[in-house]
Design brief:
Elements: H1 2-8, H2 10-13, E1 17-21, E2 24-27, H3 28-50, H4 57-83, H5 85-90, E3 99-100, E4 106-107, H6 115-133, H7 137-144, H8 148-162, H9 190-208, H10 218-235, H11 253-274
Antiparallel strand pairs: 1-2, 3-4
Amino acid sequence: MDWLHFWQHLPGKISPNLLEIGSFQLRYYSLMYLVAFALTYLLVTYRNKRERLSYTSETIQDYFVWAILGLIIGARFGYIFFYNIDYYLDRPWEIILPFSFDGGIRFTGISGMSYHGGLLGLLTGSLLFCHRRKIDFWPFADLFAPAVPLGFTFGRLGNFINGELFGRVTQVPWGMYFPLDPLGQLRHPSQLYAALIEGLLLFVVLWSLRKIKAFPGFHFCLYLIGYGLARIIVEFFRQPDEQLGLFWQSVSMGQILSSLMILAGLLILAVKYRK
């Protein structure tokens, strides 16, 4: 029983800050994303060298600058348009300024990022990069697709340490109490579910299939379909965004966007297969 109590209250025992100096805070959340990018880079360079692909290390390094920039911009604007458009139409300055002017000026930080928006931003940056460098997009995307989920695992662990994106109310014994939950109820640790299913499990599957030679874009399509399915499953346990709730009393925005991912992956597979 003592171990159960410890587990259920674990989020409240974890400080989200790795380092604090005065008002400066270095959060584990930021560190986890650095780990995610570093792992993805190492896995991609490993594949590029081991499988004797034609990309130079300079090309991969330059691409990461484009990818990270596209990911951050897309994730931010994706959250605004997919999840909270009415709020930011009234307060457009908060899109880029880390301050709220409601009832005076106060620092809030920039919060609100969308995975699906990040994916669109990443794809936009990737297409521009490939066009600029005269690189075929599809095999280049296949190089990265199997590696991405492992990095995503650490991103979700960062969400868990931050105590955000917690799950729905539950009675299962492995549920947890999260300090940011205004109701203080036992909830699914959906961030850990996501790290396991969207991250680690999907990585194992895609990495084990990486040497299959089908057609350019095949592994990228598998990623779209695999992540979409994994995200739909996790969304059944994740607390919906308060400002949106559930559509038709059962479907979340994340599930709608993930269904579009699956559809896009299937359509690309069909077109590529016919060609």
